[in-house]
Amino acid sequence: MALRVDTLTIDCADPRRIADFWCAVLGYELREIDDDDALIGDPGGEGWPLLFQRVPEGKTVKNRLHLDLRSATSMAEEVERVTALGATTYRFVEEHGSFWTVMLDPEGNEFCVLRGPEDGWTPDG
Are 49 and 32 within 8 A, CB to CB? Predict the structure, then answer.
């Protein structure tokens, strides 16, 4: 029997701040919070829960794991929306016939906003 992903845990300095940011980005809701952890989840029960865990050290290098987020409309529209929520644009990437934007959350964790249907993306390629 194989294991299944239960929760994606992200180290951070301020669990509430990061949980609030990601709730707004993903449309998730806050499920549990205390001084050291904040758990958020998809209200529809489809996406993985995210746990933000307070750690004493700051982020120092590129993430080895990151979220790729698909826009329901256009990449530019979502980049603008998440920027207004507190993200920053790190860089625009264009390669292998596609493009996406690498963003940073308020604590500098990388995530990518992928192109959407208005950018020519289709589910089958």
Answer: no
